[in-house]
Write a sequence for this structure.
């Protein structure tokens, strides 16, 4: 039986690589989503070509703008109608629109837009898909966060991005607490500093390295951690909430 995995913002960067690695494992039907349908379908075609003969796992495409409730609902309906349940949700899509910003200088609009995509949208995706996980008591949710959002790293640059990822880490803890006692595990992860359009070509990591820890959390065994914040399969912050009392 194939598990159904959804990856947001998967037309490029780390998201695209997550799709490649998950599909390569076998056992997953991976839904590559993007807000721009043309870019998403191009990414899917390129991935299929790259992976030709390497896996039988189906990779499908579905449009998804994570900031648009009706777009989320269309994906929920697609998953429900075709597969009944959801198994894996990787909240990867994000924006960084204040790379050189300072907290007192950036207009509130920048904060609002950033939190909309990086924090409220993962929450909306969880509200939409975790019920489809609880129905069969299996789910793995991975919130792709950043060391920039670690509480110890609240310095004065990238203020909107930093705040959005700090809040995403908080959201992860609250979700894990709410799901305690179930087999739906929710964790946050930092991929490290990875060469993508979000960063610079001199970033030290490849997308392959960045995606590995994310795919590991997406495939945790039953009884695995929940509410943690990880990098390289190790805890950055120890907040394992769903251990037996
Ligand atoms: P990226 O190359 O900029 O990719 C971001 C993806 O998010 C793109 O596919 C983009 O789509 C999509 N996206 C943005 N807004 C969206 C929306 N409203 N709906 C759907 N998709 C949307 O960034 P990346 O480096 O791969 O980052 C992936 C994740 O890793 C992010 O959560 C990021 O914060 C995190 N991260 C990255 C690094 C790093 O060093 N790269 C470090 C720490 C954390 P479009 O192509 O349409 O814009």
């Amino acid at each position: 039986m194939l598990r159904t995995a959804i990856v947001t913002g998967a037309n490029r960067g780390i998201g695209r690589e997550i799709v490649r690695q998950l599909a390569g494992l076998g056992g997953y039907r991976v839904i590559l989503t993007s807000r721009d349908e043309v870019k998403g379908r191009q990414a899917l075609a390129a991935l299929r070509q790259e992976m030709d003969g390497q896996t039988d796992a189906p990779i499908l495409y579905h449009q998804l703008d994570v900031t648009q409730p009706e777009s989320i609902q269309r994906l929920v309906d697609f998953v429900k109608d075709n597969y009944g349940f959801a198994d894996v949700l990787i909240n990867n899509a994000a924006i960084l629109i204040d790379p050189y910003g300072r907290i007192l200088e950036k207009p509130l609009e920048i904060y609002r837009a950033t939190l909309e995509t990086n924090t409220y949208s993962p929450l909306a995706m969880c509200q939409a898909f975790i019920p489809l996980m609880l129905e069969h008591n299996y789910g793995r949710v991975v919130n792709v966060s950043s060391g920039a959002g670690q509480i110890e790293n609240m310095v004065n640059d990238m203020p909107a991005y930093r705040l959005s990822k700090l809040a995403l880490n908080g959201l992860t803890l609250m979700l894990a607490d709410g799901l305690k006692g179930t087999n739906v595990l929710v964790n946050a992860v930092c991929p490290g500093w990875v060469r993508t359009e979000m960063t610079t070509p001199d970033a030290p990591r490849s997308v392959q390295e960045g995606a590995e820890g994310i795919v590991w959390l997406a495939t945790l065994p039953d009884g695995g951690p929940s509410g943690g914040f990880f990098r390289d399969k190790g805890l950055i912050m120890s907040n394992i909430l769903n251990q037996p009392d």
User: Anything to note?
Assistant: Residues 8-9, 11-15, 34-36, 39, 64-67, 92-95, 117, 144, 146, 190-191, 193-194, 196-199, 203 surround NAP (CB under 6 Å).
